[in-house]
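Colleagues,

Please find the record for the two-part complex below.
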Amino acid sequence: IAGITQAPTSQILAAGRRMTLRCTQDMRHNAMYWYRQDLGLGLRLIHYSNTAGTTGKGEVPDGYSVSRANTDDFPLTLASAVPSQTSVYFCASSSTGEGDNEQFFGPGTRLTVL
Amino acid sequence: GQNIDQPTEMTATEGAIVQINCTYQTSGFNGLFWYQQHAGEAPTFLSYNVLDGLEEKGRFSSFLSRSKGYSYLLLKELQMKDSASYLCAALDSNYQLIWGAGTKLIIKP
């Protein structure tokens, strides 16, 4: 693994189904993030984790949950998918604290909920 | 509230110079990022400014004025591959990034 990976690349899902988007990084970054990106709205933060074992809510957390059992993995779960969750989902990671905390992004997951 | 404003779309000619402006209002401020995003791809880091002034990195430069809540990204000697969206993001007091909606830059031959 080099950097940050996401799976699946794309998914079509029936409304009401449960779905977990996977994210793994090998850069030993403390912080990880989940964003959704919709046309004209830019990146919106769903949930974040500043360190393993802790998570926090972002701007649009409703309908999503996350866990951070270890440093490398940060899965995002949609408990019961709805069509408004159709979007491109990006996972990102960064170091924390003062300085240039550049966020590195995964390639994204394109999710369609029908 | 927290807000980032940048133009929705800009058009420029190959070989020319273009300046993309960004204004921000955040709860605290710990720096300003610019990212590039090609269609269908993930954002990639371009620059980070935390002090006032101009940072130059090859054909790309980024400027910050903290007192005015203003930044710009300057792209010189434009190439067709520079056609992309450019995202401005400010780091707030909690070290969370507040993102603008992005500026789509169209380069014409």
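The interface with chain B takes residues 40-45, 48, 58, 90, 96-98, 100-108 of chain A (CB under 8 Å).

Comments are welcome before we finalize the supplementary table.
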